[in-house]
């Protein structure tokens, strides 16, 4: 019997419970008399309230606040005038006739699911490409570099940025306590406290894969590649004052901006650029090409336009699509590969691990996460297994491989395997070319005057509440990046210290002069 036969009897908009029973009274629980007590066989009420009690799944441990949209990506098929297949055999790039469907989730990082979108924070830019070879996730940020380069430090870094475990309030002192002992973060801190730390919205924001990945061609040869998204709408960042003004009235402005633009058919677009570098250690460089705290400068490694993405459909349901979306850096397709970047490898474990916990062991069966192609796997069971993609169609009894009596068979490798050679002692050590300050100094000098002024003023505001030892260490870091940078932060902190005492006295006086509230009770 099909759904259709049953559905014909009732109009679609009649309220039912999850068992399909029509609900005839949705206003009153069953009680003895109209004053209670309530009775325990209230099946409809119990089903309704117990489902409500379970409405929330754990939010993402980072990037909890987000907005998403559907669209497509189309490759131009060339890199710098050459066929893209010279570098990668990934069909999402070589096949220019296909519009690959995508789902994008933008996010802020530190605070919870309904926190203001005006906060100074990196922004997440995660793209799921539903390619003909299965899914590819490019899980990036708006900024092109990151705070740290070793994944072992990530939980400590996030704890220092998250609210204090006692007061539940974010505290710049905890944050700078960590950062002043992680000098590799100097470059990211320089971007974050400049206007680049508050993009005006998601549409006018860049994106970047941050890490070096690899492209692999038909012969199994690889090049290092970095990905960057450039908004066709242009880039817009906010000063702290502008962000404060928006936040006074609206703390959902970026979500609404994206939703409303798509709703009025003003579809946002981004062009995808890549930077390529020959695979190898590159001893001639004063930084390690796999270091995610470093930029590859445009003049040395030009940006090549390789495709365009358009977002043209809003989600139909926030929870099922945006909240349950699960992106991961391990989700690559043939022709795309990892580099040896340690941070990237640490991330690759973390994402699917957290998603099995956050969404559930069968998170890849959900419509937003499943590939838009046939899936044939011998994986079995687990909570909420609702497989529509059964293993072997020929012989469903065989859910293992290899088998002489049927079942699924291994695929043929579409090209020559990329087989990088590695050797070395196993050890716990920092990379040898740390060079923590030079690029941060250059970024400081490249900012426009107003951006530099903002940077200093934002850093001084945040550092003012930190103890002297932390301030001094941060000033040292900035001075190492650029003498003027260090001097200006130090001078700002001195002035702010003096002003703080005067302001405090004035605030106490003003409080004494104000009246008390009335007692309307
Ligand atoms: C989200 C871990 C570094 C971008 C997450 C989540 C975890 C995580 C556990 C939550 C995922 C979920 O619940 O679905 C890590 C670790 C890192 C790291 C361990 C370093 C060792 C980075 C870097 C970037 C980044 C360098 C940017 C290049 C993102 C984005 C999301 C995210 C965009 C949100 C994805 C979404 O919208 O669902 N990260 N992360 N992370 N991370 Fe990372």
Strand content: 5-15%
Radius of gyration, Cα only, in angstroms?
A: 27 Å
- The CATH top-level class label of the domain at 66-146 and 199-365: Mainly Beta
Helices, by number, come to 14
Question: Which overall shape is indicated by the principal axes computed on the Cα atoms?
Answer: globular
Number of E-type strands: 12
Cofactors, ions and other ligands in the entry:
protoporphyrin IX containing FE
Can you offer a commentary on this structure?
It contains 14 helices and twelve strands. It is of the alpha+beta class and 521 residues long. Among the domains are: 248 residues, Beta Barrel (Catalase HpII,  Chain A, domain 1), CATH 2.40.180.10; 61 residues, no CATH class. Strands 1, 4, 5, 6, 7, 8, 9, 10, 11 and 12 form a ten-stranded antiparallel sheet that branches. Strands 2-3 form a two-stranded antiparallel ribbon. α4 packs antiparallel against α5 and α6 runs parallel beside α11. The radius of gyration is 27 Å and the shape is globular. The relative contact order is 0.12. The model has no long low-confidence stretch (mean pLDDT 94). The protein binds protoporphyrin IX containing FE.
How are the SSEs placed, and which strands pair?
Elements: H1 3-7, H2 43-53, E1 66-75, E2 78-79, E3 82-83, H3 91-94, E4 100-108, E5 123-131, E6 134-141, H4 154-161, H5 172-179, H6 186-192, E7 207-208, E8 213-216, E9 222-231, H7 240-249, H8 253-263, E10 269-278, E11 304-313, H9 318-323, E12 336-337, H10 342-358, H11 438-446, H12 449-463, H13 468-481, H14 483-513
Antiparallel strand pairs: 1-4, 1-11, 2-3, 4-5, 5-6, 7-9, 8-9, 8-12, 9-10, 10-11
């Amino acid at each position: 019997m099909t759904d259709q036969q049953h559905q014909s009897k009732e109009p679609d908009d009649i309220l039912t419970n999850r068992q399909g029973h029509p609900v005839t009274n949705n206003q009153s629980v069953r009680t003895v008399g109209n004053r209670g007590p309530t009775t325990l066989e209230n099946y409809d009420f119990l089903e309704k309230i117990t489902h409500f009690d379970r409405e929330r799944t754990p939010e993402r441990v980072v990037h909890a606040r987000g907005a998403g949209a559907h669209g497509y990506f189309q490759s131009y098929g060339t890199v710098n005038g050459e066929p893209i297949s010279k570098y990668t055999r990934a069909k999402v790039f070589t096949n220019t006739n296909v519009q690959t469907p995508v789902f994008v989730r933008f996010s802020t990082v530190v605070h919870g699911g309904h926190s203001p979108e005006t906060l100074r924070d990196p922004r997440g830019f995660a793209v799921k490409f539903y390619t003909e070879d299965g899914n590819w996730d490019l899980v990036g940020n708006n900024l092109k570099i990151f705070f740290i380069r070793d994944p072992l430090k990530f939980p400590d870094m996030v704890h220092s940025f998250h609210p204090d475990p006692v007061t539940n309030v974010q505290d710049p002192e905890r944050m700078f306590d960590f950062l002043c002992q992680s000098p590799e973060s100097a470059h990211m801190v320089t971007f974050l406290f400049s206007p680049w730390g508050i993009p005006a919205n998601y549409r006018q924001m860049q994106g970047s894969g941050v890490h070096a990945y690899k492209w692999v061609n038909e012969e199994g040869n690889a090049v290092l590649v970095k990905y960057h998204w450039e908004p066709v709408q242009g880039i817009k960042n906010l000063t702290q004052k502008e962000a404060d003004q928006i936040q006074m009235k609206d703390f959902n402005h970026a979500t609404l901006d994206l939703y409303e633009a798509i709703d009025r058919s003003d579809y946002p677009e981004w062009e995808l650029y890549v930077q390529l570098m020959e695979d190898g250690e590159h001893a001639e460089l004063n930084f390690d090409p796999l270091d995610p705290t470093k930029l590859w400068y445009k003049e040395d490694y030009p940006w090549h336009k390789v495709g365009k993405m358009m977002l043209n459909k809003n989600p139909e349901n926030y929870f099922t699509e945006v909240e349950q979306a699960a992106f991961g850096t391990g989700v690559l397709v043939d022709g795309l590969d990892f580099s040896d970047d340690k941070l990237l490898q640490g991330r690759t474990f973390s994402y699917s691990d957290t998603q099995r916990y956050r969404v559930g062991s069968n998170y890849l069966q959900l419509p937003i996460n499943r590939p838009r192609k046939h899936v044939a796997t011998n994986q079995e069971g687990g909570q909420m297994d609702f497989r529509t993609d059964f293993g072997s169609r020929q012989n469903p009894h065989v859910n293992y491989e290899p088998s002489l009596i049927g079942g699924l068979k291994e695929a043929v490798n579409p090209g020559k395997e990329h087989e990088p050679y590695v050797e070395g002692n196993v050890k716990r050590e920092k990379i040898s070319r740390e060079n923590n300050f030079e690029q941060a100094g250059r970024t400081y000098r490249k900012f426009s005057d107003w951006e530099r002024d903002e940077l200093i003023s934002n850093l001084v505001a945040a550092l003012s509440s930190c103890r002297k030892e932390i301030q001094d260490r941060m000033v040292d870091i900035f001075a190492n990046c650029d003498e003027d940078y260090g001097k200006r932060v130090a001078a700002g902190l001195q002035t702010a210290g003096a002003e703080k005492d005067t302001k405090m006295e004035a605030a106490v006086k003003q409080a004494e002069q104000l009246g008390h509230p009335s007692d309307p009770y």
